[in-house]
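Re: that backbone. Tokens:
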């Protein structure tokens, strides 16, 4: 199952939230990795998928 991935960079207020899709395991690994690597990025996951969402860049790095 795929999840909606929302990424916000708090130190760049002019940058709107980024929206992607990813398989659940990759989305959860991305969330954990961003929490460790980038404390000012907020990553949220939900099931609110919409047509046309781009695949999370480099999603294969986060697949288990």
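Recovered sequence:
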């Amino acid at each position: 199952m795929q999840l909606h991935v929302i990424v916000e960079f708090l130190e760049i207020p002019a940058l709107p939230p980024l929206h992607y899709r990813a398989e659940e395991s990759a989305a959860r690994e991305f969330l954990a990795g961003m929490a460790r690597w980038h404390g000012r990025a907020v990553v949220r996951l939900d099931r609110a998928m919409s047509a046309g969402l781009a695949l999370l860049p480099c999603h294969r790095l986060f697949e288990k």
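Strands lie at 2-9, 18-23, 41-46, 54-55. The mean pLDDT is 92.
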